[in-house]
Amino acid sequence: MMEPLTGAAQWRERVRRVEDAGATTLQVSDHFDRSPVSPLVALAAAAQHTDRLRLGTLVLNNDFRRPAVLAKEAASVQALCDGRLELGLGAGWMTDDYTVSGIVREPAGRRIDRLADTLALLHALRDSAGGPVDLERGSVGVAALRDVPAVPRPPTLLVGGGGPRVLGLAATTADVVGINFDVREGHVGGRAARSASAAATDEKVALVRRAAGDRRPVLHLMLYWAAVTEQPEEEAARRIAAAGLELEPAELLASPHCLIGPRSVLRERLCELRERWGFGYVSCYEADAGVVAPLVTAG
């Protein structure tokens, strides 16, 4: 979750805290409830206050922006941050986002089709070195589209998801694949909770590797729960109750998305994320940065 944005000085200080913590990337979500700020606008502002951090969206709901408009906005932020943008995209899933925005939440297949169309346009722009691009495909119909402004190199592309079709699409199109829950229910319910297990993560990572073939995308994981504690089961029980999850504490603690326990155990878990699954980097909520950053920077 993000704290509310109250002004330019507050945002500048928060960006500097993230940088001082040793993070490599500042990421902003697109959910209405979890990110009370426009992601690309916030990242463009952040770019004026850091020249080291990479700046990412985790992730944009593809249904919120027309593909050509997104391409223009991404190119603009890429120019403003001197090539440090990591453009994260997803098919959209949260029912509440669609309710608040007034956008119809269509069946998953149609949303994923539109995501594939957007990715096709972004790759066409990459292949053309910025345009012009003519493309008629599904939800995309553009003529003589160029990157505006022109950028020396395109943003790094992250595609995140938890279902087979999105993960397969990500494996064949993205520089970074975000391994997430299966949230086709539109909320974090029983299916999502079960898909957070180590065994389910084994299956998702294997699917990505098969689909990627000779490609070697970086694998990314979101840490949804993090705490240093000598009573991990009690902390896990509190997190489960707060989120209304259909899990036992032991199940939550075994999830690769969970980093709750004594410091020494958490360092071992971070090593497992790299060695067992091959995750290249992890993200956490802003409130958990003080827990996660020292563990990562310590080795």
Structure notes:
Strand 3, helix 3 and strand 4 (85-90) form a beta-alpha-beta unit. Strands 1, 2, 3, 4, 7, 8, 9 and 12 form an 8-stranded parallel β-sheet that branches. This protein has a two-stranded antiparallel sheet with strand order 5-6. Strands 10-11 form a two-stranded parallel sheet. It is of the alpha/beta class. The protein is globular and about 60 Å long. The protein folds into 2 domains: 1-159, Luciferase-like domain (TIM Barrel, Alpha-Beta Barrel); 162-299, TIM Barrel. The mean pLDDT is 94. It has helices at residues 8-20, 39-46, 67-80, 95-101, 108-127, 164-173, 190-194, 198-212, 232-243, 249-254, 263-275, 289-297; strands spanning 25-28, 54-57, 60-61, 85-90, 133-137, 140-145, 156-161, 176-179, 218-223, 225-228, 258-261, 279-284.
CATH class of the largest domain: Alpha Beta
* End-to-end Cα distance: 26 Å
- Biggest sheet: strands, sense, closure? 8 strands, parallel
Strand content: 15-25%
- The whole-angstrom Rg is 19 Å
- The CATH H-level homologous superfamily of the largest domain: Luciferase-like domain
Question: What's the order of the H and E elements?
Answer: HEHEEHEHHEEEHEHHEEHHEHEH
CATH domain topology of the largest domain: TIM Barrel
Mean pLDDT comes to 94
Second CATH tier, the architecture of the largest domain = Alpha-Beta Barrel
Low-confidence stretches: none
Q: What structural class do the secondary elements suggest?
A: alpha/beta
How many strands appear in the DSSP assignment?
Answer: 12
Whole-number tally of structural domains: 2
Overall geometric form = globular
Helix content: 40-55%
Q: What's the total helix number?
A: 12
